[in-house]
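thought: fold this chain, then report.
action: predict
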Amino acid sequence: MRAHPAGPLHADLLPEQGPGLPPTDVAGLARHVWPLGTKREPSGVISLHGHLVTDLAAEHGTPAFLLDEQDFRARARAFRSAFEGCVVYYAAKAFLSRAVARWVHEEGLSIDVCSGGELRVALDAGFPAEKIALHGNNKSLDELEMAVRHEVGLVVVDSFDEIDALAGVASAHGRVQPVLLRVRVGVEAHTHEYIATAHEDVKFGFSRSAGDALHAVRATVAQPSLQLRGLHSHIGSQIFDTAGFEVAAARMVELLVQVRDELGVELPELDLGGGLGIAYLDSDDPQPLDQLAARLLDIVAGECGRAGLALPQVAVEPGRALVGPAMLTVYRVGTVKNVDGIRTYVSVDGGMSDNIRTALYDADYTVTLANRAPSEPLMLTRVVGKHCESGDVVVRDAWLPTDTQSGDLLAVAATGAYCRSMASNYNMVERPPVVAVGQTGSHVIVRRETMDDLLACDLG
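observation:
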């Protein structure tokens, strides 16, 4: 973990939280690195809601994703409370399964999906179609047809080509499809280049500054089979600096005013997207959710009031902020190798096939010994995977005990967002299971892949 080598490795593990923090305690919730049910037992073994990681690893194998259901639900309730009166969509791309889709619905949230596959999972879970929004910069005709046929609540339109395509599909089905238009607001979010999405040189949405957004409004309003409900913006992901959100909100309201003044259309909805950062390390300090929500809603209300514009229905789209901290990954150590006094490599039985984010974004993670209490002294290590790539790194700089050895278990915190979603079968490695853990027990919600699964697609 990123910590002073003299500090205790288990200091950041949470005490047992029971059913999770109440939904009003959102300030403390935002800064938790480990799932709420995590603690280190007197024996030194990490547990999740009283279930020892050693027992879970024996039952489900390693690597495995362990998802704290109560943590996820607590975060969903926190967003619903902080954004009271708004629509809160769970951004399913972070991680989606039928069980998670059901939890989202039970907690009163809507859901946004980015593909026909994600839409199918949500529908199979029984998620109400009217509470689903479909995103994507290059939706296929099949995906548009699927959305229209199932009468999803919103399609977030991303291009002029899509305006025409969706209008044709909706007309063929005799449906007037509600839509939002995704707008590039020209905000440079302070995040990694690959997850910044609202500056001008990106593939998403219509440019506000170039006038494309206003032109798209005209084109959409002209289609009798489309109902323009409002505008959508998303500035990026893993963002701590809220200034970008504030600028985006102000610019989106300006565009709503321009649409009203030039076209005589007052749009009733404004989606500010997601992208709120989470704590991966103790040093990370996300802004408390209630403060962020109050600030954003005050900006929208103030801008609308000054312009004499009716306050629109505001929506937000948290994904990582709900599922990211609610999950940890447990690995088993295979080899420990000191390379000529330069570095010690601790190899685990997973790697970039179950967490590509370190290689892709230089992401940082917190890691600790999970099957026993860490002992002094500590050594600076690099936790790496089993894949045939030098870039196969799980945790770049990890302080682990000098007696770390083959067979030990390591727990990596905050792996709920994008790790399982972006997992691959590189080197023909089977993807790990997702195990939901709560006070009453554990159960697999996504099973481990087998070689039979992989070979079933190989037609020889």
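thought: worth noting. The first strand starts at residue 38 and ends at 40.
final: tokens above.
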